[in-house]
Amino acid sequence: MNTLKGEKVAVVGLAASGRAAAQLALEKGGKVHVSDLRTDAATHARGAELRALGAEVDLGEHPLDRIADAATVVVSPGIRPDTPVLSELAERGVRWISEPEFAFRFFHGPLIAVTGTNGKTTTAVLLAHLLEEDGLDVALGGNIGAAFGPPASELALREDGPAWYVVEMSSFQLAAIDRFKPDIGVVTNLAPDHLDWYPSVESYYADKANVFRNADDDSCWVLNEGDSAVADLAEGIPGRHFYFGRSSSGRPGAPRGAHCDGDVLTLDLSGAPEPLGHAEDIALLGAHNLENALAASTAAGLAGASPESIRRGLSTAKALPHRTENVAEADGVR
User: Fold this and answer.
1) Taking CA 131 as the corner, what is the angle to CA 270 and CA 306, rounded to the nearest 5 degrees?
2) Edge-to-edge order in the sheet of strand 220-224
3) What is the DSSP letter of 320?
4) How many CB atoms lie within 10 A of CB 236?
5) Neighbours of 66 (CB within 10 A)
6) Could you say which architecture CATH assigns to the domain 108-316?
7) What homologous superfamily does CATH list for 8-95?
8) How far apart are alpha carbons 55 and 20 in whole angstroms?
9) In what order do the strands lie in the sheet with 8-12?
10) HSE-CB of 165 using CA atoms within 13 angstroms
11) Closest CA to 127 of 141, 108, 117
């Protein structure tokens, strides 16, 4: 899809992703309506910005008839599925999609999606760094936070397609996908989370499982070999499955991916293991970051980065703010 040609698009929610989706829809020729229950100064400013670009904006309400009349309804991830506006739309049989799903329809290049409970942002940022070390143009964004990248819809506004899109996906965003299909998907791990939002762990995992929805034989999956919940979720999913983990034993009969051979990180995508350096040489601290590095290395290798580039990138990566940073060293103690 390259143009909307006057198609009506309703965007529910005017935070960062909602604004980005509205801007993308306007850029692609859509007739855009945006609504948000908030009426604070920041929301008014975003509304005024979109009105100047040609959108119709309602604040303080979600006019159901106008939303339901749209050909495409894009819902911001911060809006709970049990809110009145979504309950009413569901009763009318109106389907909605998430902002990354909308953005994906305008991507021009291959996609790596990173999801899981913990480590998503570190893995996505590190993966982008490894690919850039290989000289590849990377568009990084999604649920990653403004400090590291924009919403997916901003990435879709690029005139030139990158070598790779790297998009972090939350369960809320995966809950409302339709065509979203990563060429490479990474699942870092799974654990109970967001139970103030979900009625059960199973429903949370079910939304995470949507990353596999459009899998085919060409799909590549990077999976945590030590996480049984991830293995259960990926069971029977089409495509090639690669595994990462700190153990050197691996999963019987499965392609390796990346693992630790003693204290040496090793990448093995085709039966020819390549050392990536010693664990102590990685700039990120902690066993959890070692797993994030193994996941990112596997995905980078599948995306075409050379072992040399991955090795160099692992040694030069920097910890993300407030995520096990090295803040000082005294008498050899960090």
Assistant:
1) 35
2) 138-142, 164-168, 111-115, 184-187, 220-224, 240-245, 257-261, 264-268, 274-278
3) P
4) 6
5) 15
6) 3-Layer(aba) Sandwich (3.40)
7) NAD(P)-binding Rossmann-like Domain (3.40.50.720)
8) 12
9) 56-59, 31-36, 8-12, 72-75, 97-98
10) 32
11) 141
Q: What is the pLDDT of residues 285-321, one digit of tens each?
A: 667 889 999 999 999 999 999 999 999 999 998 876 6
4, 28 Cβ separation under 8 angstroms: yes
Enter the pTM of the model: 0.93
Q: Where are the alpha helices (DSSP H) in 185-286?
A: 201-208, 228-234
CA distances from 258 to 111, 119, 150 (A): 20, 16, 29
* Dihedral sign computed on CA atoms, order 287, 292, 293, 295: positive
Give the model confidence (pLDDT) of 5-59 as tens digits. Answer: 999 999 999 999 999 999 999 999 999 999 999 999 999 999 999 999 999 999 9
The residues spanned by each domain of the chain are 8-95, 108-316
Contact 11, 77 (CB under 8 A): no
- Among 334, 307, 299, residue whose Cα is nearest residue 123: 299
Partners of 98 in beta bridges: 75
The answer to whether the beta carbons of residues 87 and 64 sit under 8 Å apart is no
Taking each helix axis from N to C terminus, what angle separates 16-27 and 41-53, rounded to the nearest 10 degrees?
10
> Hey, how many other C-beta atoms are within 10 angstroms of the C-beta on 200?
10
